[in-house]
Amino acid sequence: MKLVVRFVVAVVLAVGLAGSVGPAAAASSGPGGPGHHPRFSALVFSKTAAFRHDSIPAGVAAIKQLGARHHFRVDATEDAAAFTDANLARYDVVIWLSTTGDVLTDEQQGAFERYIRAGGGYAGIHAASDTEYDWAWYGGLVAAYFRDHPGSVSPQFQVATVKVFGRDTAATRPLPRRWEREEEWYNFRTNPRHTVRVLAEVDERTYDPRGYSVPGGSPGMGRHHPVSWCQPYDGGRAFYTAMGHKAEYFTEPLLLAHLLGGIRMAAGETRFNCGRED
């Protein structure tokens, strides 16, 4: 009798294990393994209608790896048709990864505005500020539009010192107060520092900030040159960083920690202490 019972148990276990590796089980297993509920859901959007950064695949892969390690779900698309009320409602944060140009129709823009007004999150990375120049609402969300970067009278990529402000946000806590790294340092059309909480500035004394848009080099941003910031906006949460041009940058532990913190803040998964909402 004992042999029969053992045989039956063995068959049940074998059938159960075989069923657990099928396609349906694989599709239903989220970050952290089967049965684990993700902390939040993120949509990475990387459509381009102008300059295209060859680092986009590396950025998507890095964010997916962050999701797997830190237990949040990540979907990625370049299809603007994803911007519907029903689909956006599935996500806590939409990450605009080096988007450029006009990427959404008026109807899709309306869906994204309603998503943010309903309490959704926005995280912009690098060329997200080089996007939708004729959509004033988006300009307010990202808080500053790209103007230019070094590359004519000065090197396009330069090592500079980033000054990090505060240790009380998930985006700044892992970073040193003075952070030296190489980047394509953006100059912006306006300085957002009076309307957002600045998380990091690049010190123009440590590199040549002159941009390419004016013969002989356009000026930088001056003493205060923000490169990362956050703000509550129209009912939602917004985080932006100008960093992330090269594919290799998405292997930097400190940059990844900064992005992870900003994404978590924008998703509402951790404290969003970005000024006016506190």
Structure at a glance:
The chain is an alpha/beta fold and 278 residues long. Helix content is 28%, strand content 21%.
List the helices and strands and how they pair.
Blueprint lengths: L1 H18 L3 H6 L12 E5 L10 H15 L2 E5 L7 H4 L4 E5 L8 H12 L3 E5 L10 H7 L3 E3 L9 E7 L13 E6 L3 E2 L8 E6 L23 E8 L2 E6 L11 H15 L11
Parallel strand pairs: 1-2, 1-3, 3-4, 4-11
Antiparallel strand pairs: 5-8, 6-7, 6-9, 9-10, 10-11
How would you explain this protein's 3D organization?
- The protein is α/β, with parallel strands linked by helices.
- Helices cover 28% and strands 21% of the residues.
- The N terminus is likely disordered.
Any idea how many domains? Answer: 1
- CATH homologous superfamily? Class I glutamine amidotransferase (GATase) domain
CATH class group:
Alpha Beta
Distance between the termini: 68 Å
Content of β-strand: 15-25%
Overall spatial form: globular
Q: What is the percent of helical residues?
A: 25-40%
Strand order of the largest sheet: 2-1-3-4-11-10-9-6-7
Helices, by number, come to: 7
Q: Which structural category do the helix and sheet elements fall into? A: alpha/beta
Number of DSSP strand runs: 11
The biggest beta sheet reads: 9 strands, mixed
Order of helices and strands: HHEHEHEHEHEEEEEEEH
Spans with pLDDT under 50 lasting ≥5 residues?
A: 1-30
CATH topology group:
Rossmann fold
Please tell me the CATH architecture by its name.
3-Layer(aba) Sandwich
> Radius of gyration from the CA trace?
22 Å
Kindly state the mean pLDDT as a whole number?
89
